[in-house]
Amino acid sequence: MSRLAREILTALVVLALGAGVGWFLGAPLVGLLAAAFLLLLRLWVALARASAVLKGGRSLPSGAGPWAPFAGEILRLRAGSDEAPAGGGALAVPALRRLLEMFPDAVVALDEDSRIVALNEGAGRLLHLDLEEDRGQRIDLLVRHPDFLRRLHEPADGTPVEFHPGGAEDAPIRAWILPLDGAHRLLLLRPLREERRQEEQGRLFLSNASHELRTPVTVLMGHLELLRDQPALAASLRPSVEIMHRESVRMNHLLRNLLELLRLDAELVRPRPPTPVAVDALLETLVERSRGRGRLVVDGGGTTDRILGQEFELVTAFWNLVDNALKFGGAAGEVRVAWSDDGEGGCFAVSDEGPGIDPVDLPRLGERFYRAAGARAAGVEGSGLGLAIVEAVLARHGASLRIESTPGRGTCVRCLFPAAALVRDAASHAHGVPRGEGVL
To answer: 137-151 pLDDT, tens per residue?
Structure first.
């Protein structure tokens, strides 16, 4: 029986006895009140004894009554704080260790000198630490990976870091350092082997599925092209053939984008060495591709700047942005492409005069397969992978994407490249060579 049940049963028995004695004496109400008074007196004595523990008592008085568990927990916490290592502050080590064991992840509590205050079994296994012998040791003397050490001495803002403990390249760990109180921090650890294995399986499935589907889709698209060019094709069948051909082209485009994303993901793990790519040549390629699609105005032509990276990837990313602007800007609208360099970095910008983007959609642009409501409502074909490819390419080149849009007033998309990603012609920058402008 639990302590609470025993206390309730005791109170009921005392009240029943009081009422019984009072009934025997002819005054049951007086007997009941007397029993209630005795219960209150017992509770007051128990509270007084438990308060003695709060004021510094080192032992639990006998007969502490219903407050005994409360007083006992105070004594256990006080004993734990006495066992805390030097520099550990007032943290109760046994209680803290019990708390850390409840975490599903590996966790280490550190003091302001990066000494281990407590850790759970998961952290011991990941970092090869002993729960007792390593308590009080400096974590930076036990885990020597440079990325981890650099993050350890930075502000505890929750920014993750990945490292391999003990040089074990097959056992990567992601770690977060979080503030606990003014003098303590929590080190949260998570193994990445299983997570990366699942990611690799997902990429492998997508890659195999895309390759297997691409061949029949290409064959189907070719036969449909032959069929729609046949003069003998019945007029009643021609609309159906046109629809099937258009959908097969869209499916082929989707598969091509999927394969490109998978290739970019693989390149992040095994990057190829970069080569200088002329910005001016990129702009000329965009102009050639856009012929017959609308009016494209280029600002910044004639620059000698070059971007360190892969030409095919940069063309793919820039063209995706121009293609979006041409589709959403309208046939009569003007699309402007600009390159600028302020000495601290370069900026490739694409702006259109289209309907703009709803502010609700802006935070989700770049998510794979996400399409803005305006694009769906307008019936503009797309896979929702274009901006995802752009962000993946920019990430490989150390660049970032910025999108500004006002409904009814157009959209401007900027690719911001750091100075380290550029190769400049020092002479042209020194003499301030003017940028070209015009319709190419």
So the answer is: 888 888 888 888 888
pLDDT at residue 349 tops 90: yes
What is the Cα–Cα distance from 397 to 345, expressed in whole angstroms?
A: 12
Q: Which pTM value belongs to this model?
A: 0.49
Q: Mind giving me the DSSP string for 47-73? A: HHHHHHHHTT--SPPTT-GGGHHHHHH
Phi, psi angle pair for 25, to nearest 5°:
-90, 0
Is there a contact between 100 and 109 (Cβ–Cβ < 8 Å)? yes
DSSP code at position 138: B
Break the chain into its structural domains and give their ranges: 3-80, 93-191, 198-269, 275-439
Q: Which residue has the tokens 């760990």?
A: 173
Contacts 24+ apart (CB under 8 A), 278-281: 278/304, 278/305, 278/306, 279/303, 279/305, 279/306, 279/307, 279/339, 279/346, 279/348, 280/304, 281/311
- Which of 177, 175, 173 is closest to 191 using CA atoms? 173
| Measured distance CA(180)–CA(189) in Å, rounded | 15
Report the distance separating Cα 249 and Cα 218, nearest Å. Answer: 8
Kindly state the helix (H) or strand (E) to which residue 219 belongs, with its residue range.
helix 193-228
Q: What is the CATH number of domain 275-439?
A: 3.30.565.10
Report the distance separating Cα 180 and Cα 177, nearest Å: 9
Q: Which numeric CATH code is attached to 93-191?
A: 3.30.450.20
Strands 436-439 and 295-301: antiparallel
